[in-house]
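Run log, item B.
One chain of 139 residues. Sequence copied directly from the ordering sheet:
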Amino acid sequence: MKLIKTFALAIAFLPHIAHAKMIVITHPDNKLEPTLEQIRQLYLGKTKSLDGKMVLDPIDVPPGSPLRGKYLEQVVQKTQEQLNLYWSRLVFTGKASPPRKLTAQETVVDWVAQNKGALAIIDSQDLNPKVNQVFTFSD
């Protein structure tokens, strides 16, 4: 009986999980409209600004996050191993630093809301009025 209840509960939340979208957020004063390629360039440390003025500080999608697989596939287009090697080389040569690491999505949203240059990828369900949504990934 307990197994049936657990299974029913899992099925009840499945549509909620399946419809979650990955989005990019920025500080509410930031009115950027980045393309996917610009987001990729930011997250790979190839650029720090989209407008030549404001330096952006991308926040990493943490390992273990339900979004990590989509992030690796759609944004950086690398496996986790490839990404680790990529950042090892750049950090060793001093050419770039990896995105800032924070732990919880609530912390990410708060960080972005308080820092004008912050940019993060979150689940659309975590969006709130404290931040500005600037990009939505396709499924």
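Observations after the first pass:
- The chain is about 40% helix and 15% strand.
- Residues 3-17 have pLDDT under 50 and may be disordered.
Flagged for discussion on Thursday.
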